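FAQ: What does a multi-protein file look like?

Like this. Sequence, then tokens, then the next protein.
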Amino acid sequence: MSRMPILAGLLGLAVAAAVPGVASMQSGGQGPVLLVLNKEDATLAIVDAASGKVTGLVPTGDGPHEVVASPDGKLAFASNYGGTTPGNTISMIDLATRKEVRRIDTSPIRRPHGLAFVDGKLYFTAELNRLIARYDPTTDKVDFLLGTGQTTTHMVIVNKEQTRIVTANIGGNSIAVFERGANPNATWNETVVPVGQGPEGMDVSPDGKEIWAAHSRDGGVSVIDAATKKVVATLDLKTKQSNRLKFTPDGRIVLISDLIANQIVVLDAATRAEIKRIPTGQRPLGILMVPDGSRAYIAINTDNYVSVFDLKSLTITGQISTGKGPDGMAWIAAR
């Protein structure tokens, strides 16, 4: 990882100063860690969030897109989406040793993408197979498959009770909502919610009442009532190609990355009104919200850095160079 460009020292200090308590974590215990996947390099960058410095690079499989960490901060999982040849592996990475300890073969499941780690198990989507799968690290086996029947099942969100699973299906122009029945191993009820063209970025509001989906192909956003599973509003934002949509932890603000317009769209979640549009570098992709609500990170794919976005001032305050083609990100809290 030392061969990659890193954030200048002064910027690292500025980031640390902007986050109360972060600087002191460096001397005692582990401070917060940002994980960033570099698609072009096929690496996972481990970033000290206080200084903004890359402290390690771990090779992954081909074309890694999304990453998630276990709650204890010990393991990370990267979905190896592949390139011209569809990927069929997931990298399991030990963050203490900074090594890939297992290359999980998902065959015949191909194009693994969206990830969610819940109660010790890894849920992931498989775009080519139109399904959701679940991997158990303790048994090293895929122990659960759930077909969506929708084309290009891309992102996935699983609630902590594992009673609801939501997917964004780009080619199906739909959001699929699965609810667990009385028998968790046999009964899942699916509701397919038609939305706009190419839903890709998706998030569930922190209170669980709404599902928002950004349409990558028609510039809109669908707002779905989670209880009725019906679209209650469609926002015509005229984005050129939205990629990710994320709520702030308090649920007040929504950020949308527009990778063709090279900007972040900021919305008021309650009124659904646009607040502002913020220019970024070329091709903003992944968005990661820090749990304390102080800032977000935006992966600027073509320019090979991650922007630091202050959620109070709604401005970009810095950048971190992590490698070529940053996209998916994950966060590990200080310990």
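And here is the next protein:
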Amino acid sequence: MILLNFSHPLTGEQRAQIESMAGRSITHCIEVPAQFDHDRPFAEQVAALADATGLTPTDWQTEPILVVPPALNFIAVALVAELHGRTGYFVPIVRIRPGQDSLPPRYEVAEILSLQQIRDQARKRR
């Protein structure tokens, strides 16, 4: 699967956790830093962020993709919308959390959220 990381660099341990939870190997890890200019519209910056992955329209629609979203909520939600437009579905995302009692702070993979499944379940509550 292709792992798109729009957050901090991942450690080998974190990548192994992701592979274990996903039940698939990471074939490509594409790191794209998400540093935005708050004085410019986010929609155009999010499109550029997705473009920076180098994925083709065919890749977006046919390859298994997993995303580590940026930490800033406004960028993350706009990116989810952009990626939905490119893939045709909500891509699953990796949730990272701070590890307990670690100095300096260490982060671990908490879970993989199937946004499409969350959306599908929410439809039943309409």
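Q: Is there any per-entry metadata?
A: Some entries carry free-text notes. For the entry above: The beta strands are 2-5, 28-31, 65-68, 93-98, 107-113.
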